[in-house]
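A quick aside before the break. I want you to see a complete sequence-to-structure record at least once, exactly as it would be stored in a machine-readable document. Don't worry about memorizing anything.
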Amino acid sequence: MPETHSYHLSRVFNAPLKFVYEWCTDYREDDNQITGSKTQRKILQKTTRRVIYLSAYEREGKMITGVNIVTLQPPNGWTLEYLGEEEDETGKYQLTRLGPRKTRLDMTFTDKYKISNSPTKEEDKSHTDQIWAKYVARLEMDYSSSA
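That is the input. The structure line, written in tokens, reads:
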């Protein structure tokens, strides 16, 4: 039976909230290079309030596609709605200023799988945590080089 689960993650950045928000919401087609992911991204729309992009990846020899709708809520939040062939996902992202150069990102995700051999909650959380560890490292490197 397909699984539905929710989980929460937090990450702290050594960068000001404004920089973190702008960096995290500057969706680009080459973002997969930051994490080493083979997922391809095609930006369909990018405005000050919304980003829509397609994502495609290969799983067991088959291309899996989905559409991502990101609603921007400046200056400190955004939401994600992903509608895919194998799963639907919602994500809520909230930034909190911890100091002049320190920002926390709280993330909550709900995954609703349409397939029977879906990842567990722990696998999804671990995978997302690994991705965000790479984003934190790159964001902090980008901030250091811009300061």
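Two observations worth writing down. The mean pLDDT is 96. The chain has one domain: 4-36+73-146. We'll return to this after the break.
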